[in-house]
Design goal:
Blueprint (H helix, E strand, L loop, with lengths): L1 H31 L11 H16 L18 H10 L14 H8 L3 H13 L13 H10 L10 H4 L18 H13 L6 H8 L3 H12 L3
Helix pairs in contact: 1-2, 2-5, 3-5, 6-10, 8-9, 8-10
């Protein structure tokens, strides 16, 4: 039943994206006609156009999604967003993309490298709305994992890479502060199961966490600021 529901949701989202995505692709290709190549400098105005036409339905026009089914992108490091968009594409020599998602595969496939740079730069400039931890009973456990890890299982502190307040490090590590707990928990599960295969360290770490620990640390991260 869950599988059927997810399939229907994917089909509905794909249909909803269709017109906007096709429209953006035509506009983007027309704008690029005659251009010798993508500029390294981001165009935030064009990035906003992509966000409005293609991304807003799930992530919000300003990158603040309405719920945990889709991540907040506001304030996220641009380099990280670009990498994730590329990871939804099957790269030369690979049999499948590093991140498997039929909706995002279609969207990323319609964007050229400059489009990705532009939309990522736009989302980075947006202000993320704060999140909140929801379960007071797991805050202590979540804090322990985030700040100190689990030494006897080789789980490092999340803060070591993502920072004490979850702001991450540009290029290297994503911002986690205020991210929806449902989304963070889902990604940790995907890392553990190998359905998200674009970070070997996160795969190893996620494998060493049980379900209760995943939920606790994800909820704690939601309240970081």
């Amino acid at each position: 039943m869950n599988r059927l529901y997810k399939t229907l949701m994917v089909l509905e989202l794909a249909a909803a994206f269709g017109a906007g995505l096709v429209g953006w692709t035509v506009t983007s290709q027309a704008a690029e006609t005659g251009a010798p190549g993508a500029s390294a400098k981001p165009d935030v105005t064009r990035g906003q156009a992509i966000a409005t036409q293609v991304c807003a339905s799930c992530h919000g026009a300003d990158g603040n999604s309405a719920g945990g089914a889709f991540p907040k992108l506001a304030g996220q490091h641009a380099e990280y967003i670009v990498k994730q968009l590329k990871d939804y594409k099957t790269q030369p020599g690979a049999k499948e993309p590093a991140r498997k998602n039929p909706i995002m595969a279609g969207i990323a496939g319609a964007l050229n490298d400059q489009d990705m740079v532009n939309v990522a730069a736009y989302f980075e400039t947006q202000k993320a709305k704060p999140g909140y931890a929801r379960d007071k009973n797991t805050v202590a456990l979540g804090q322990k994992i985030y700040r100190g890890g689990i030494a006897d299982r080789g789980v490092p502190a999340c803060a070591a890479c993502h920072g004490a307040t979850g702001m991450g490090v540009p290029v290297q590590y994503p911002r986690l502060s205020g991210q929806w707990s449902d989304y963070t928990a889902a990604q940790l599960t995907a890392f553990a199961q190998g359905t998200r295969n674009n970070s070997e360290p996160m795969h190893t770490i996620a494998l060493r966490l049980n379900e209760a620990e995943v939920k606790a640390v994800a909820d704690y991260i939601a309240g970081l600021h």
